[in-house]
C-alpha cells in the first residue's frame, strides 16, 4: 500500500509544480514583458523630436521609430514577439535628438530590463541625452543602472 501512496503523492506534487510553472509563465507568453523595450522621458521645457533605431545581429535594423515628446511627457515602445525569444542577442540603440545629437547604447534586453532615455536632465553630466539601462528586481521594483 505504501508504494501506491507515494506514487499518488509524487503525481500530485508534479501536478502542482507544473500548474505553478504554467501560471507564472503563461501571462508573459500571452501579454509580453513587464517593461517596454525602451522609454523616453523629456525633462526639458520644450518639445523635442526623437528618433530611436534598434539594430540587431549583423547590424540589421529591427525597428526605427520617430517621436515628438512634449515637455514633461513620456513615450515608450513595447517589446514585440521578436524580443521575447531573442534576448541573448546584443542590441544597439541609436537615439537622435532634434536631428543633431546622437547617443548609442549597446546591450542585451530581457524580460526585466529596458533602455531608459532621458532628455535634458540638468543634473546629468551626459546632458542633453542619457541612454542607459533600467531593470526590474522582484521585491525592489524598478532600478536605474545609471551612475
Describe this structure in words.
There is one protein chain. With 147 residues, the protein is of the alpha+beta class. It folds into 2 domains: 1-31; 35-144, Immunoglobulin-like, CATH 2.60.40. 24% of the residues lie in helices and 42% in strands. It has a 5-stranded mixed sheet with strand order 4-1-7-8-9, with no helix packed on it. A 4-stranded antiparallel sheet has the order 3-2-5-6, with no helix packed on it. The longest helix is centred in the first third of the chain and has 30 residues, at 2-31. The radius of gyration is 21 Å and the shape is elongated. The protein starts with a helix and ends with a strand.
Brief account:
By secondary structure, this protein is α+β, with helices and mostly antiparallel strands. 24% of the residues lie in helices and 42% in strands.
Provide keyphrases for this structure.
2 helices, five-stranded mixed sheet, Immunoglobulin-like, alpha+beta, four-stranded antiparallel sheet, 2 domains, 9 strands, 147 residues
Amino acid at each position: 500500500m505504501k508504494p501506491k501512496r507515494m506514487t499518488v503523492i509524487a503525481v500530485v506534487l508534479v501536478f502542482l509544480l507544473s500548474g505553478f510553472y504554467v501560471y507564472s509563465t503563461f501571462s508573459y507568453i500571452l501579454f509580453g514583458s513587464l517593461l517596454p523595450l525602451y522609454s523616453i522621458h523629456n525633462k526639458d521645457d520644450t518639445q523635442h523630436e526623437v528618433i530611436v533605431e534598434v539594430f540587431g545581429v549583423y547590424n540589421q535594423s529591427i525597428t526605427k521609430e520617430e517621436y515628438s515628446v512634449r515637455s514633461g511627457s513620456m513615450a515608450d515602445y513595447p517589446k514585440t514577439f521578436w524580443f521575447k525569444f531573442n534576448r541573448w542577442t546584443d542590441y544597439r540603440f541609436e537615439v537622435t535628438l532634434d536631428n543633431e545629437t546622437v547617443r548609442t547604447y549597446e546591450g542585451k534586453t530581457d524580460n526585466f530590463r529596458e533602455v531608459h532615455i532621458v532628455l535634458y536632465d540638468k543634473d546629468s553630466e551626459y546632458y542633453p541625452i542619457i541612454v542607459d539601462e533600467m531593470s526590474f528586481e522582484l521585491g525592489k521594483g524598478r532600478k536605474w543602472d545609471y551612475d
